[in-house]
Specification:
The chain has 303 residues and is an alpha/beta fold. The chain has 10 helices and 13 strands. The protein has helices at 44-51, 92-102, 107-120, 136-148, 166-181, 193-199, 217-224, 241-244, 271-280, 293-302; strands at residues 4-15, 18-29, 33-37, 59-64, 77-80, 154-158, 185-189, 202-207, 210-215, 228-234, 249-256, 259-264, 283-290. It has a 6-stranded mixed beta sheet with strand order 5-6-7-3-8-9. A hairpin with a 2-residue loop joins strand 1 (4-15) and strand 2 (18-29). The longest helix has 16 residues, at 166-181. The relative contact order is 0.14.
Length: 303
């Protein structure tokens, strides 16, 4: 198992009457992708700002284990903020070179690496244009490059997929996995659950400043007893009382007049349910799958 490079122990932070972070503990391991999830106001941003030493915790400890025994240097960390943090009237290459230099790179090295990244992301022909001339998605690309240009040991990515179309979401999912393979530990926070589910090694779900669930997705599924779901398309609108009466059925959601999602309990088999569907209903199509991270997230936060 990869060794721990960051330990967060019983950290608390209060603002006036709001406890933004409440006795939160977790660790980051070398070369992993760790997802910090939760609804707006859960305390994620406050926790990230404490990791970056922008604000101090009221109690608890944050300890980095990066080999130097000290607080991390600027070159050790990368940070992609959710809000834009770029100088709008400065050219792209000059901006990236500047960010590389303040994080410990030689100017020529920073410029060379920046050009490599721009070429990879199809932005080399715009490197002398001002940031303000770029689209939201392309500005996000520049901000992402700025956060990883200096090859940090840990990079914190807050909503890294914001502003991206599906093609670029896939591209950056691959880039994040590549960063991890090359030695960078990634802590990310994102709302695109289907992407998080595919890239994250471990997850921590927060709500109201506290941990709700944590572990690998499989561990979370076991802990919560998350079951499965059956998506069924019928001929037309049907009375599903025969299905609702089955003891393994937890709930049924209506997608449209003839399409339904049936949630069944953990460990329950499909055989009896499929038999009822085939006997009493005209089934056009059927699809079974485990509950997704999105399903687990909504259920946990809703409760």
């Amino acid at each position: 198992m990869n060794h721990t490079i960051l330990s967060v122990n019983s950290v608390e932070k209060q603002f006036a009457r709001v406890k933004a972070v409440d006795k939160l503990s977790f660790d980051l391991r070398e070369r992993e992708i760790f997802a910090l999830l939760g609804p707006n106001g859960a305390g994620k941003t406050t926790m990230v700002r404490m990791l970056l030493n922008i604000i101090k915790p009221d109690s608890g400890t944050i300890q980095f284990h990066l080999g130097n025994g000290q607080q991390p240097k600027a070159s050790d960390l990368g940070y992609l903020p959710e809000e834009r943090g770029l100088y709008q009237d400065i050219p792209v290459l000059k901006t990236l070179t500047y960010f590389g230099v303040i994080r410990g790179m030689e100017r020529k090295q920073a410029e060379h690496k920046a050009i490599q990244w721009l070429e990879r992301l199809d932005l080399k022909d715009r490197m002398h244009e001002k940031i303000q001339s770029l689209s939201k998605g392309n500005q996000q690309k520049i901000q992402f490059i700025a956060s990883v240009l200096h090859e940090p040991q840990i990079t914190i990515l807050d909503e890294p997929f914001s502003g991206f179309d599906p093609v670029n979401q896939e591209l950056f999912s691959g880039i994040i996995r590549e960063l991890c393979s090359n030695g960078t530990t990634v802590l990310l926070s994102a709302h695109q659950m289907q992407l998080v589910e595919r890239v994250a090694d471990r997850l921590l779900l927060m709500n109201n400043g506290k941990e709700v669930l944590s572990g690998t997705l499989e561990e979370i599924r076991r802990t919560t007893g998350a079951g499965n779901k059956v998506t069924v398309q019928l001929d037309n609108d049907e009375d599903l009382s025969k299905i609702q009466e089955h003891p393994s059925v937890q709930k049924i959601d209506t997608v449209n007049n003839s399409k339904y999602v049936i949630y069944i309990s953990d460990g329950a088999g499909y055989s009896e349910l499929l038999k009822i569907l085939g006997t009493h209903y005209n089934v056009q199509s059927i699809h079974t799958e485990q509950l997704s991270l999105h399903d687990i997230y909504v259920k946990a936060v809703g409760n």
